[in-house]
Amino acid sequence: MAHIIDLKNIKCPKCSCTTFTLTERHILPHTRDVENGICIDNKDIVGIPESEGKVLVTCYKCKHIWKLQKVTSMLNINGLD
């Protein structure tokens, strides 16, 4: 089950600033077809994420970057609507 966090409870662990940028990251597979050592499909086919993502936070004031623990998507942050 996803961990839910409230936006108002996020603050920089170094300087306590509440102004920041949220960045959601996922690993996406890219597929290329190769036949006899030659790439025959030059287009990337992007699929669904293979693993759960992570949400990184960058503080505007001190530029500290940290990962929100147990939060795998911005959909799990209340108050972003």
What features would you describe in this structure?
By secondary structure, the chain is mainly β. The protein is 0% helix and 33% strand. It contains no helices and nine strands. The chain has strands at residues 5-6, 20-25, 30-31, 34-35, 38-39, 45-46, 54-59, 65-67, 77-78. The strands form four sheets. It has a three-stranded antiparallel sheet, with no helix packed on it. The protein has a two-stranded parallel ribbon with strand order 1-9. A two-stranded antiparallel ribbon has the order 3-6. A hairpin with a 5-residue loop joins strand 7 (54-59) and strand 8.
Question: Brief overview, please?
Answer:
0% of the residues lie in helices and 33% in strands. The chain has 81 residues and is mainly β.
N→C terminal distance: 21 Å
State the major sheet.
3 strands, antiparallel
Quickly count the helices: 0
Spans where pLDDT lies below 50 across 5 or more residues:
none
Task: Report the portion of residues in β strands.
Answer: 25-35%
Provide the residue-averaged pLDDT: 82
User: Which sequence of strands runs across the widest sheet?
Assistant: 2-7-8
**What proportion of the residues is helical, as a percent range?**
under 10%
C-alpha Rg (nearest Å)? 18 Å
Entry keywords:
elongated, three-stranded antiparallel sheet, single chain, mainly beta, 0% helix, 33% strand, 9 strands
Architecture blueprint of SSEs:
Blueprint: E1 5-6, E2 20-25, E3 30-31, E4 34-35, E5 38-39, E6 45-46, E7 54-59, E8 65-67, E9 77-78
